[in-house]
């Protein structure tokens, strides 16, 4: 599940899509 703070890719694609690319599963 790729969520805003669950997977590596945030749900929103655009402004702020590369904020924290790897938080839940590292």
From TrEMBL:
Domain of life: Bacteria
Stretches the record annotates as Disordered: 1-26
Name listed for the protein in its UniProt record: Uncharacterized protein
Source organism (scientific name): uncultured Thermomicrobiales bacterium
Lineage: Bacteria, Pseudomonadati, Thermomicrobiota, Thermomicrobia, Thermomicrobiales
């Amino acid at each position: 599940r790729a969520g805003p703070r669950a997977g590596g890719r945030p749900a929103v694609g655009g402004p702020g899509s590369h904020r924290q690319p790897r938080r839940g599963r590292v």
